[in-house]
Amino acid sequence: MKVTIKDIAKKVNRSITTVSRALNGYDDVSSKTKALIIKTAQEMGYTPNTFAQRLQKQFTDTIGLILPTFSPRFADPYFSELLAGIGNKAATLDYDLLVSTRAPGEQEIEAYRKLIEGGRVDGFIVVRTRKQDARIDYLIDREFPFAAFGRSEKNSDYSYVEEDGYYGMQLIAEYIAGLGHKDIAVIISDPMLNFTGERMSGLRDGLSSHNISLKNEFIRTGDLTQKSGYDNALELLKRSDRPTVIIAFNDLMALGAMSAAQELSLEVGRDVLVTGFDDIPMSEHSHPPLTTVRQPVYTIGGMLCEMLIKIIKKEITTHQQELFKPALVIRQSTGEVDSLSEE
Amino acid sequence: MKVTIKDIAKKVNRSITTVSRALNGYDDVSSKTKALIIKTAQEMGYTPNTFAQRLQKQFTDTIGLILPTFSPRFADPYFSELLAGIGNKAATLDYDLLVSTRAPGEQEIEAYRKLIEGGRVDGFIVVRTRKQDARIDYLIDREFPFAAFGRSEKNSDYSYVEEDGYYGMQLIAEYIAGLGHKDIAVIISDPMLNFTGERMSGLRDGLSSHNISLKNEFIRTGDLTQKSGYDNALELLKRSDRPTVIIAFNDLMALGAMSAAQELSLEVGRDVLVTGFDDIPMSEHSHPPLTTVRQPVYTIGGMLCEMLIKIIKKEITTHQQELFKPALVIRQSTGEVDSLSEE
DNA sequence: GTTGAAAATCAAAACGTTTTGGTTTATACT
DNA sequence: AGTATAAACCAAAACGTTTTGATTTTCAAC
Fold first, then answer.
1. Which of A127, A150, B238, B302 could disulfide-pair with B89, CB 3.0 to 4.6 Å?
2. Structural domain boundaries enclosing A190
3. Residue A55 lies in a domain
4. Nearest CA to A22 among A3, A37, A4?
5. What share of chain A is helix, strand, coil (3-state, %, to 5)?
6. How far apart are CA B47 and CA B212, in angstroms?
7. Is A302 domain-assigned?
8. Given an 8 Å threshold on Cβ–Cβ distance, is B72 in contact with A51?
9. What are the pLDDT digits (tens) for A228-272?
10. Which of B72, B77, B343 minimises the CB distance to A77?
């Protein structure tokens, strides 16, 4: 049924060795037969059997990505975009991408081990790094190729890409302080995550240079979902001493916070300002459009992929470490004049 | 480095055949050695080499999914959710999911062919079926296992799952007509897509039973993105005879339409009503929350996956065809009273 | 203590490639 | 014509499994 190298060999009356070598462009086969073989392969519709190839060459042309998520039903556009960035780059470089999801913990490391032992992948992309990151410790220990989206507190002796969260939050702080606000609430993310600390420091430092400090009651922890932004904002805004600004640690929570405000008939951008972090596509088309910090997730995904493949191919041996300077994107959720409705 | 069956064989002083058979639970190996072998395999951290297995058994435990999308950077939550549904079900059934994206056309079929010929996948899930669908024709012709999300005009002699788009749009039509509106605009999807026709008929029939007909100027075609919803709605709403209702063929376009309305200082739910289709997670938390038709995409993804695997394993031989009755979800974008702000 | 059947084990082939280490054939040089 | 060199080709091994078709061992029954 399926055409193998053997069928071609028989047809052109050569050994399978020659066919293989012709197809792989070795120069110890005459250009005449090489042409013939390639033409015949074409005609017969030959496609090499990937598994046989991978078994023989001892690599898999596959990179692994295990999304750390509690619910398998992650609808986070941030991850979709990252995934698209990684996946598309992988495809252009002729790599497969093997994706699965696993909640942080025991099972997670086991999943990494299985893929490595089973010879399933050549390397990993590790995302959403944590302060203490067992995945990174494990991979370093095993000396298995990987590239990470984000640093880790303990051990940063590996290749990574990250946005400068400290700087990003400083931008927000400067901007908000510049608008004269003082009653500022913040919805942060899980303190285990490495970027939470980064962003918090940036925010604190940025505000304190304007002599503003965050009240403890105005610091709430969300789980990066729209719902948690909504819930937290609702509680904040129902207080008699409600804040005039809500700074969320990602866009999804910011969007949730805007809904909460609108639910309470507050006008976002006037009665309360809201900012996010990430600049997911939706944030440009929300109402009002969201002021946020742009993190080029799609691009970062591509870079990570490229970086990892270079590591796998041993094209680079030193650790590559990229720290992006993110940019502030000012939109109407912080009160900028709406360019369309001129009133 | 990596533990193979051979290493185990040496350790327990048995042949590799015995080890293999023990590990696979055959009963022609004594329970004592079976136990020993399993224990040793555990201890040595053995994980079978997937590629060797797949080469030998002639199947791949992999299902293919080629997303038909023009831009590889698809951030459509609809697809994310479908993907999650398929992927998670596949994982629980011990199947891999091989995903790639390809724009409709020549290249698309070629991608299918490559995966089949290369023995990469055991079957496909085909999504977003078209009226004339070359993918389906090809797969039927090749007699290759597949399950589709949606029917096709020409040839529906295969296994599929679909929501009843005709019925869904009828629900919308009834509801809107019941509210007394007559100036109704609609943002439809590409007429090539099979569901476009279904939904359009449902809408037309539903409205005409209330003696309402759609004006041609009020019918616009979008590409299912938020931006196209925004653009189309903007044009519709700037007319002097602007419609009082905008019915979008998916949620993303509906959300875009809401932004456009708000941009023009129209209150959604009062000055103009907006409806969607799909009920993506975001629609519940938009402002105002979106009235739409619930399509359980996550579940459908899982069903498709299950269906396909049964076909692959030849557990079913007749074509399974499921048509979901979707449900109307009424929210504030069509003027329902907001339950929280009691005023 | 044979015998025969059942239980336990195994050697070898196969899956479709690539790679190794040749051998054969053609070509060029004395 | 003989030899060295280069060009073209190829048989066999290898990758790590599963499967086929034995062969060996055990043990009950005579």
1. B302
2. 165-294+329-334
3. no
4. A37
5. 45, 15, 40
6. 65
7. yes
8. no
9. 999 999 999 999 999 999 999 999 999 999 999 988 999 999 999
10. B77
